[in-house]
Amino acid sequence: MMRESGTFGWSNPIVRRSVVGLVLLALGSALVGFIWLPSAQADFSAQGLWASICRAAGVPTNWNNDSAAKARPTATNVVLDRSMTREGSNDAVGRGATLALNCTMCHGAQGASKSDAPNLAGQYPEVVIKQLKDYQSGKRGSPIMEALAKRLSEKDINDLAAYYAYLPKARTAPTTYDESLPALVRVGAPLRNIAPCVSCHGGIDQKLGAPWIEGMPKEYLVQQLKAFRSGERRNDSQAQMRSIAIPMTDAEIEEVAVFYARKSSTGGEN
């Protein structure tokens, strides 16, 4: 049988309601996806329809945005090299010891701090070199350290690093791997992209440029982890420490700091 003309045409009220409903649904979805959801994000800024569409789709607005890349500040200007790890000569160590007299008020006469400043005795030389150069360039902030570092020459920095590396490591013996270590120290938290502390920070393994933190003052460790977490400190290449610290809770930061600061200068437990 032939269907009656108009049964499925625009004159049919069911068809009209269906089309109108689909149009309204599409408009509503567009408003939610391109305006409401993006505006609910903390870093939202209105940059036009194309930017909103790209943001909703999860793709960049410009696939070759060189200007945006250049605008992002670099974390550090220091390129780590294995040559920085070489043992300093006797002359370098002696000259570094003289320069270090300016550092004793905060870092201790033998590189072991009693004022919540970092211990420098036995610190890897490339760590001292990198941090002093970051202070020089302003990549790591501290009014006192920036002022002191800006007066240092390249040779001064290398000699200071040689001297502190020459001193015996402060306060505590290296960590050994066993089940008693806190979970974040021993295995990290893979589901939150937190690497185990022992994989970089000495004792079991050491990554080039990662500081020795055994026996560091607890408050210093807490302060630095929270500074990485908040973004206040940003001189970690490729945001390595920021990526680890951001998911950490206050309790986890406290636990890690207590563990690494667990021994006093006399070798007893805190």
Automatic annotation (TrEMBL):
ATP-binding among keywords: no
Keywords, sorted A to Z: Electron transport, Heme, Iron, Metal-binding, Transport
Top-rank lineage group of the source organism: Bacteria
GO MF assignments: electron transfer activity; heme binding; metal ion binding
Pfam family, any one: Cytochrom_C
SUPFAM superfamilies: Cytochrome c
Domain Cytochrome c residues, every copy: 91-168, 183-264
Record-given protein name: Cytochrome c4
Lineage, opening ranks: Bacteria, Pseudomonadati, Pseudomonadota, Betaproteobacteria, Burkholderiales
